[in-house]
Amino acid sequence: MSTQTLTSEKEVIEPSPNRSRNIANWLYHCLMILIVLIWLIPLIWMFFLALTPNDILKTNSQSLLPQGFTLMNFIDAFTTGSTLRWFLNSTIVTVITTIITVIVCAMAGYAFAKLPFTGRLAVYSLTLAGMMVPKEAMFIPLFMMFSDIDLHNTYSALILPRIAFPLGVFIMTQFFSQVPDEIQEAASIDGASSWRIFSSIMLPLARPSLIALATFTFVQTWNDYLWPLVSATKPSMFTITTGLASLQGTFSQSTELGSLMARGIVGTLPLLLLFIFFQKYLIRGVSMSSGDK
After folding, report:
1. What is the pLDDT of residues 148-196, one digit of tens each?
2. If both were cysteines, with which of 16, 136, 244, 261 could 49 make a disulfide (CB 3.0 to 4.6 Å apart)?
3. Cβ pair 122, 210 in contact under 8 A
4. Rounded to a whole number, what is the largest CA-CA distance in the chain?
5. Which of 72, 101, 120 is at the close of a domain?
6. What's the pTM?
7. How many CB atoms lie within 10 A of CB 236?
8. How far apart are CA 179 and CA 186, in angstroms?
9. 92 Cβ contact list (under 8 Å, min separation 6)
């Protein structure tokens, strides 16, 4: 038997490493697709319910397939009730909170990472300790504090408690600590002040981490339910989360299920668009903040 024949038989018996790797990648992608489909089932069901007339949903709301077609549920979401007002409240609160939180966390992270001052480690440790305190434990002090200064049912009461974001300070500190000190030293030799170094050098370098922090803040603020439920007691000051929850306590859940699902889709849409357009910045920002290059 020739050497060429033995070699060909050995290749048939022992699969090549590339072939095994391709099979593993194929199985991995199949598993990921399956997980995504399972995760999408509630969203698909919610979308089909929103497209189904309410008269049909009164008798059968368990089908995953559309039982009719109508756009009136989405039209009602924008023309009737206070959904637009709640959506506007959530937009104002979330956008302002995100901007202020990113600015404050970026300045704090730069100070902790690059500016030596007395007690820096103690202050940083105390800041990170805030992540270990459940926000539910702070509701009573916050409620009493804002009651004393008569700020409930205002945008200020919905914005101010979320500005203190220890995780954001940690993310920005981790990123700035990865920036070589030589960059700051060179700028200082050229006569740049600390504020000039921060605004003109550090912030442009930190763009991926800033976008990641903004995404985290936007999602958490938009989805926040407990604090708006406690602070905003007037329907005109409800956010989209508390507003939709108030509808579930009425007969809308049984008589206008399609309209309720349409309002839920309207409230979820900004988060879906956020992840679609900024997912690459989110992943890059997290990896850079964790020290991975």
Report:
1. 888 889 999 999 988 888 888 998 998 888 888 888 888 888 888 888 8
2. 261
3. no
4. 96
5. 72
6. 0.79
7. 10
8. 13
9. 155
CA distance linking residue 71 with residue 27, whole number of Å:
40
- Please report the pLDDT score of residue 293 as a whole number: 47
Distance CA 259, CA 74 (A): 7
| Helix-then-strand count for the chain, H and E | 17, 0
Q: Are residues 19 and 88 in the same domain?
A: no
Q: Is residue 27 located within the same domain as residue 92?
A: no
Distance of CA 30 to the CA centre of its chain: 26
pLDDT for position 206: 87
Q: Which domain holds residue 45?
A: 3-72
Total domains present in the chain: 2
Q: What is the pLDDT of residues 261-277, one digit of tens each?
A: 888 888 888 888 888 78
CATH number of the domain residue 83 falls in: 1.10.3720.10
Within the chain, strands assigned E span none
Give one DSSP letter per residue of 196-226, joined into a string: HHIIIIIHHHTHHHHHHHHHHHHHHHHH--H
The pLDDT, as a whole number, for residue 222 is: 92
Q: Which amino acid is at 197?
A: I
Which of residues 72, 104, 126 is at a domain's end? 72
Q: Please name which of 174, 173, 144 lies closest in space to residue 157, comparing C-alpha atoms.
A: 144
**pLDDT at position 6, please?**
46
Q: Give the H or E element holding residue 143.
A: helix 139-148
The conformation of residue 71, written as its DSSP 8-state character, comes to S
> Which residues of the chain are under the pLDDT cut of 70?
1-17, 81, 248-255, 281-293
Residues 10 and 135 in one domain: no
pLDDT for 159 equals: 92
Are the C-beta atoms of 219 and 274 separated by less than 8 Å? yes
